[in-house]
């Protein structure tokens, strides 16, 4: 059985191979290790292997891990799950990034609850395939939401995130990534600080990187299969 360190090495090799195939710089894509439902001990093993960016989907679980690992001050914590208003304060106070901004109300709450001494990096989540039961804004709503977030003093808008439909052919998936890349480039033209396009997971890393991703989110490819969350309240964020 591969160790976590070996899986991280394999993930980085996948990223490097894909960036080479796409004729991009090898350092143009970052690896976010998605550690949701995994124990702190696994995160420590990943940290010892050189990983510094971790993604969490569940607020309470993520906050507990952040507090348990305060000694590792160079870890960058990303919140990548849907966010309800009643949990925004915990996220604003503990995470470094929020990748799932999908409405103005949440952005306003995060801005009000974030310390002015350290800005919160945020991404707007785009529902690129406009699926009814999936979080994210419609592409046509992007410009107006980005303009509002860009005015907020305690947030730094860094770019976009998406989770495309799982029921697509390779051709359709590539088209979804290409559309996201177009939206990303349009946003960069409007806001100079935009630098992050978070798309691609364990099963579609290569297609995402060829499509323009600057950050891929890999969970099972690093930590193995996840144990289902049993706490129904936690599932609600």
Q: Mean of residue pLDDT?
A: 94
* Elements, N to C (H/E): HEHEHEHEHEHEHEHEHH
C-alpha end-to-end distance = 33 Å
Count of separate DSSP helical elements: 10
Descriptive report:
The chain has about 240 residues and is of the alpha/beta class. About 40% of the residues lie in helices and about 15% in strands. Strands 7-6-5-4-3-2-1-8 form an 8-stranded parallel β-sheet. The radius of gyration is 17 Å and the shape is globular. The model is unreliable at about 230-235 (pLDDT under 50).
Secondary structure topology:
Elements: H1 4-21, E1 30-34, H2 40-48, E2 53-56, H3 59-68, E3 76-79, H4 88-94, E4 97-101, H5 104-113, E5 120-126, H6 142-150, E6 155-162, H7 170-190, E7 196-198, H8 205-210, E8 215-218, H9 220-223, H10 232-235
Parallel strand pairs: 1-2, 1-8, 2-3, 3-4, 4-5, 5-6, 6-7
Q: Could you name the key traits of this structure?
A:
237 residues, 10 helices, 17% strand, alpha/beta, 8-stranded parallel beta sheet, single chain, globular
How do you describe this structure in short?
This protein is an alpha/beta fold.
């Amino acid at each position: 059985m591969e160790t976590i360190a070996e899986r991280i090495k394999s993930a980085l090799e996948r990223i490097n191979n894909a960036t080479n195939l796409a004729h991009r710089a090898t350092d143009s894509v970052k690896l976010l290790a998605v550690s949701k439902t995994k124990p702190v001990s696994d995160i420590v093993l990943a940290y010892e292997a050189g990983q510094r960016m971790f993604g969490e989907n569940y607020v309470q679980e993520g906050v507990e891990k952040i507090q348990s690992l305060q000694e590792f001050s160079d870890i960058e914590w990303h919140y990548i799950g849907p966010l309800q208003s009643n949990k925004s304060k915990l996220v604003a106070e503990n995470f470094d990034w929020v990748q799932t901004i999908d409405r103005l109300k949440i952005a306003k709450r995060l801005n009000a609850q974030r310390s002015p001494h350290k800005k919160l990096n945020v991404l707007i989540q785009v529902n690129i395939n406009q699926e009814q039961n999936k979080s994210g804004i419609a592409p046509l709503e992007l410009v107006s939401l980005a303009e509002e977030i860009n005015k907020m003093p305690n947030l730094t808008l860094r770019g976009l995130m998406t989770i495309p439909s799982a029921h697509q052919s390779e051709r359709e998936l590539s088209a979804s990534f290409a559309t996201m890349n177009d939206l990303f480039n349009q946003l960069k033209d409007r806001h100079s600080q935009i630098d992050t396009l978070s798309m691609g997971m364990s099963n579609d890393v290569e297609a995402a990187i060829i499509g323009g991703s600057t950050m891929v989110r890999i969970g099972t490819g690093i930590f193995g299969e996840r144990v289902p969350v049993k706490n129904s309240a936690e599932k609600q964020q």
